[in-house]
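During the no-cost extension, the postdoctoral fellow (Dr. R.K.) reprocessed legacy sequence entries with the updated structure-token encoder. One reprocessed record is reproduced below for audit purposes.
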Amino acid sequence: MQVPTASFRTVRGYTIVAAMLDEVAYWPTDESANPDAEVLVWQADTASMNPSVGGAVIAAAYEDDPIRAAAEYGAQFRRDVEGFVTREAVAACVVADRRELPPVADVTYTAFVDPSGGAGTA
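Re-encoded structure tokens follow.
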């Protein structure tokens, strides 16, 4: 596993089979004060991006749970969970101006991400 730096300039040349990027338009770079101007961001619904997904499937999802379907098939951000963790709660866990810590000997580091929030698809 390799974790390259967050710069659109340094990723070139790598073969990337899968990448998970969050808020990439706001990642800082050494050469740019405004890197989001050089990053393509695309937001489109499932029907536009993948016409092979049946309209009946999408319609049924909207009928069953409109908020979830808007996030899953409509490319809309969730509005019902945005207050789950308050800005103040996150700020209380952050040390101002800390960018990184040196590794600690005899500590094994691991990471995990579940962008789906643990929900499965039927």
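The two ends are 31 Å apart (CA to CA). The chain has a mean pLDDT of 79. The remaining legacy entries will be reprocessed before the final report is submitted.
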